[in-house]
């Protein structure tokens, strides 16, 4: 009896998605769980609530807490951390590329590198130069992948993926689904993976 797969909904601009992106493949592998990568954009979700940016920016007290918490969480998971000088950062091109690679064996390494650039190195991620740098370092045909990512068909796919996120009730990131069961936040990743094992496919 195999474990149920986990759907991993994430955003490159999301600091708590950073924590999950960096560790989900190892955590899932230890339980024999397949990860289904689901990049989407939080901006349209927030705008549907009447927000123009992240709640961590809109609510100063919450934002102040989050940056303290990220220091602790990155120390806990032994991850590099540099508070982004721009937050939340645009992530359109990296997200389109992630959608192209969602079912490829390079998706995990690609996402970890993009996240590390944003939250470990405090660099912009939504540029051709950076995405090309990441794909090339992975030994991938960067020009070909970026062209596919920027195709009208793939742009539409990302819009549809974000609409699907909204229909499923996703209000933040990271979000995990095991079947129809929703788990919100990096601190629920282990619970979600345990549920995959307890509720096998």
TrEMBL record:
Naturally occurring in which organism (per UniProt): Methylibium petroleiphilum (strain ATCC BAA-1232 / LMG 22953 / PM1)
Top-level division of the source organism's lineage: Bacteria
Q: Which UniProt keywords apply?
A: Isomerase
> Cross-referenced SUPFAM superfamilies, in alphabetical order?
Thioredoxin-like (SSF52833)
EC number(s) on file: 5.99.1.4
Give the residues annotated as active site. 14
A molecular function annotated in GO for this UniProt entry is: 2-hydroxychromene-2-carboxylate isomerase activity
Domain DSBA-like thioredoxin as annotated: residue spans: 6-193
According to the record, the signal peptide region is none
Which Pfam family, any one, appears in the UniProt record? DSBA
Question: Mind telling me which CDD domains this protein's record contains?
Answer: DsbA_HCCA_Iso
Catalysed reactions, semicolon-separated: 2-hydroxychromene-2-carboxylate = (3E)-4-(2-hydroxyphenyl)-2-oxobut-3-enoate
What family does the entry list?
Answer: Belongs to the GST superfamily. NadH family.
The protein's name in its UniProt record? 2-hydroxychromene-2-carboxylate isomerase
Which GO BP terms sit in this record? glutathione metabolic process; naphthalene catabolic process
């Amino acid at each position: 009896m195999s474990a149920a797969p986990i759907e991993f909904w994430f955003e490159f601009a999301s600091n708590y998605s950073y924590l999950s992106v960096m560790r989900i493949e190892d955590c899932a592998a230890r339980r024999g769980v397949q990860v289904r990568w689901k990049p989407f954009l939080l901006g349209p979700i927030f705008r549907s609530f009447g927000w123009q940016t992240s709640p961590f920016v809109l609510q100063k007290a919450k934002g102040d807490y989050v940056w303290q918490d990220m220091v602790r969480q990155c120390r806990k998971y032994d991850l590099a951390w540099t508070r982004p000088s721009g937050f939340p950062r645009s992530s359109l091109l990296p997200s389109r590329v992630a959608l192209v690679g969602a079912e490829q064996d390079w998706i995990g390494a690609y996402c970890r590198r993009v996240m590390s650039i944003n939250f470990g190195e405090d660099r912009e991620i939504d540029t051709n130069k950076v995405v090309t740098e990441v794909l090339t370092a992975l030994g991938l045909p960067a020009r070909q992948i970026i062209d596919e990512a920027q195709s009208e068909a793939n742009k539409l796919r990302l819009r549809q993926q974000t609409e699907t996120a909204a229909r499923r009730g996703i209000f933040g990131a990271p979000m995990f689904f095991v079947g129809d069961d929703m788990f919100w936040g990096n601190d629920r990743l282990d619970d979600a993976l345990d549920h995959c094992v307890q509720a096998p496919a």
